[in-house]
Amino acid sequence: MRLSQLLIPTLREVPAEAEIPSHTLMLKAAMMRKLASGVYIYLPLGKRVLKKIEEIVREEMDRAGAQEVLMPAIIPAELLKESGRWDVFGPEMFKLKDRNDREFCLGPTHEEVFTDLVRNEVKSYRQLPLTIYQIQTKYRDERRPRFGVMRSREFIMKDAYSFDADWDGLDVSFDKMYDAYCRIFDRCGLKYTVVEADSGAMGGKDSKEFMVTSSVGEAVIAYCDSCGYAANEEKAECIVEHESDEEMKPLEKIHTPDVRTIDELVSYLDVKADKFVKTLIYKYKGKIAAVLVRGDREVNTVKLANLLKVNENDIDLAYEETVRSVTGANVGFAGPIGLKGDVLLIADAEVPMMKNIIVGANETDYHLKNANYGRDFKADVVSDIRKVVDGDKCPRCGNPLKLERGIEVGHIFKLGTKYSDALGANYIDENGNEKPMIMGCYGIGLNRIAAAAIEQNHDDKGIIWPMSIAPYHAIVVPVNVSNDAQRNLAEKIYDELSKAGIETLIDDRDLRAGVKFNDADLLGIPIRITVGKKASDNIVELKLRRDENSIELNYDEVVNKVKELIINSI
RNA sequence: CGGGGUGUAGCGCAGUUGGUAGCGCACGUGCUUUGGGAGCAUGGGGUCGGGGGUUCGAGUCCCUCCACCCCGACCA
User: Fold this and answer.
1) For a designed S-S bond to A249, which of A187, A288, A370, A539 qualifies (C-beta 3.0 to 4.6 A apart)?
2) Nearest to A442 by CA among A67, A158, A114
3) Aminoacyl-transfer RNA synthetases class-II family profile domain location, by residue (predicted)?
């Protein structure tokens, strides 16, 4: 392709709307443009990258025995009402009506549609197992689209669903997808970690997320270098510290006028935050729970939701009036001793190990000093409900955990019979009995792979594409197109590379060398062939985007050298 | 949905106490130049986010709506 003809409006200045490197570079390198918040146009270069990723995903899914189909983006409301998710998704869905007032939505995900297909077309154990997938655009009206393509409202996803006769079969299907995912992300040149994830109170197990490590990732993952344990923040656990051997001191009421938060208490009393226990009042499904965690800890609401056996969004911090009626005090003075009414008292596993702690007194402007678990108060439930922090002990081997941020590019988990039960996706087994199919669900965000690859592969000049997903393999740059020798040799090389099946660009624009070099660096094309002053001697330069230095070679060596470079890096 | 911020040329921005809208880059034309974002000359491009109001006069002041960005909440 000729740059003189390619729609490639690179930007010289950084667009004001972009905050992270991948977003900035995708705009600057003319891969995409924004149409609305979280809605993007892909230009030729961006589209090529997506196609490359798509092709890798397709090859690996096919290799793993999955079959490609294509589902409609428009889904009738009844189907989602049948599974109950019309209400679960709620405002996250783009909803629409047809001319006869029938309700539809733009598919945010396709469990129901796949299950519907299979329940109608698959009847016998002889037809199982079956894994089908599609590569298709999903629509989610995110509350807050963010960071360009990282969290957008329209995005391309590969979603696959497996149907098995039994749980052992599901394990086999699941493992195949796991392996396929590893191959996909390896081939895309990504550094990633597979972490254990929570699949919520609504069922599903063996939930695993593929996280591309990146400082701009929205997810936090905890991992252990010693034993390989890795989990996302919601799921991550740790070993509880041993019981403190301090002597118990007598309980004492202390005056703390207008001192409410842990921060304020720390400076008012000059005591470290780890000597406090804070009491948070939560409301869930009309009931009230008081949650105790150490002053410097945070409650993990996913763990709390699982403990209470409710959905995470059924839990909320209680309003002021509820707090007042439960504690008999203003907000900021809640404590475990003397709570009124029907309150479930939950203590984080760490709390019983602490001695002589400071808690709220359930009386405005007062706290209690030297409170001790067992002597002064007891919880209804003691459980791990806090977020892990850097340095906590690994639940498997006891070595310190590390925290890192990650971009979730893939998620696989075992659904079981959630949708087959809801929609009646049954089969007849060898004995003539009707049984629900056992399902698995496997997703990959294709646009996110592109963005994640840029996050992991860029410098201050631009993108540095891995060969496998680069929009083009090579770019030929004649330094001066008005020089006949340079132009002719560049054209000859471009021709030969193209004929050899190498995806090649030629920068035939009548621009200064600096502009062309800067664009080539910005676009991130892996191999650059510069045709300059030595063109008359048939000598050209070859430079890799990821390296500083270039080498000179005779023009007739170019095709073989480039071929070799591509083969060695895919 | 709460908090903060921004909307002026394709992009990045300036615009004073209210007085007929500018700069850089980009774009068109001509000449010179040509190995890391050229120089000179010349030209085109604006409902100043929309609507309403105050005023002789509004990019500027007031009201209102909208869009976009950031933080938080939320995210099968």
Assistant:
1) A370
2) A158
3) 38-466
